[in-house]
Amino acid sequence: MVTAGIDIGSKSVKVVLLKDGQVVARALARTGFTPREAASTAMGAALEMAGLRREDVARTVATGAGRKEIPADGEITEVTASARGMSSILPEVRTLIDVGTEEGRAVKVGEDGRVIDFVVNDKCAAGSGAFTEAMARALEMTLDEFGRISLESERSVPMNAQCAVFAESEVVSLVHSNTPKKDIARAVHDAIASRLVSMVRRIGIEEKVALIGGLALNVGFHAALERSARTTVTIPDHPEYVGALGAALAAAREERPT
Amino acid sequence: MMGDDGASKEFWRWKECNSRFEEVDWRGGKVITAGVDVGSVSSQAVIVVDDRLYAFSSARTGSSSPDSARRAMDWALEGTGMTMQDIQYVIGTGYGRVNVPFADRAITEIACHGRGANYMFGDTVRTVLDMGGQDCKAIHVDDRGKVTQFLMNDKCAAGTGRGMEVFADLLGVSIEDVGDLSLDVDEEPTPVSSTCVVFAKSEATGLLRSGWPKEKVLAAYCSAMAHRVVSLLRRIEVEADFAVTGGIAKNRGITKRLERELGLTILPTTYDTQIAGALGAALFGQTLVQRGKGRKR
Hints:
The complex is a heterodimer. By secondary structure, chain A is an alpha/beta fold. Chain A is built from eight helices and ten strands. In chain B, α6 crosses α7. In chain B, a hairpin with a 4-residue loop joins β7 (127-131) and β8 (136-141). Chain B has helices at 65-77, 109-121, 161-171, 175-182, 197-209, 214-236, 252-262, 276-290, and strands at 17-20, 32-38, 42-49, 52-60, 89-93, 105-106, 127-131, 136-141, 147-153, 242-245. The model of chain B is unreliable at 1-7 (pLDDT under 50). Chain B has eight helices and ten strands. By secondary structure, chain B is of the alpha/beta class. A six-stranded mixed beta sheet of chain B has the order 1-4-3-2-5-6. In chain B, strands 9-8-7-10 form a four-stranded mixed beta sheet, with helices on both faces. The N and C termini of chain B lie far apart (57 Å).
């Protein structure tokens, strides 16, 4: 049986296709302002990759902030989807941190991917990927460069601003005062990580800790998170697809939508 | 990201200014003091002669606080014939107040805003809302402008001038026109739902895409901002008379909505609302010199 999981994030749509419990394709498209179209694009790409047709897909489950905007056979929350997806990859993970463009989440995961507790921040950009994007732009760097260069820094420069908008002015002042870009990049990643960790502490940090979502692709943020949480943080392969994988697994189990 | 393309014109950039009241004869003055307010976004310098406002300037804060303070002070002095030697006492205030090299003393901006508002709006003002570039303060004052209570948000750009600048840029509307344009709607739209300015910006981009005209998007943002500020104000309770200072006091899109939501009229003033802090600082200087502090004339 073939099932599909579609994760409609604020920035990108992720699709995972499962055939008899095995991942046969992953695809991603930018959400833009038409999530429906983006979902269809990503789905088309995934089907092509797997050599399948749309009618081969038995069930589709949607998740993510925009899950209500696309047609699907069922929908589950991001929290449930990510916990389920994670437990199929690394069942020993107990604290799951998921950071996307406009949201930061932490889920306390029990055995079999059960959700014990969770916290979400979707109100403030300071603990989300939008913060790194704005800062990378202020420094005129790509996100990739911005993450990598921060690893070269050996100095921790304090950031006073908590707000992403105020931090942008602070970054500009740091540039004017000739602070090296690598140190600014580290300061930005440390600031997001510390905001996030103080939120995660509300549900407790229990090992093993894993990081997923778009920010998991940023090596600078990963290092900052480990510093701030004072523990090893594991990143699974394809960390941005974990939610979509969880949705595809839910579709395979033919569970009632939650 | 949207809105950053081709942004060669800086819509957020508000007009810098300086001005003086010629009817004040400083040469015959007994006590001359200055206040310099180095804020995170703008810097002001005010010169007071015998308890009367004489001259002021308002300029963008640069990357260095000392340079911004110097620039504002020089600009306030411009055309007056006065030099720093004539000024007996200088007080620094605002977020960069400890970085005013020529100041004799620093006083917090809360105290200065209370004192400045008392001068600008009169003895009856009891609640002062200062809406600055990177913060928002609700202050209670007594009939002499002394602060009795205050609350402040300086952690988040929602409800600050900086947030408004971001929107001016996004919509390509000059910051001076944002407020009036936001009132140009037949009916008030649903307020923008995101608190965070970064997220509100993406939300607004989506609204524009879905065909909302600029004025409707601005109305949705201004009404969300006014609502947010009112919730801050309610925490200290608004006691009449009510005054608004800072740059946002010049934005009718916000002041009208504040009045509507609070059911109160905002006290009018002929003074530039951005100088309240620096003016209060200069007035504190007057008191100190009258008590024997500072240089002799």
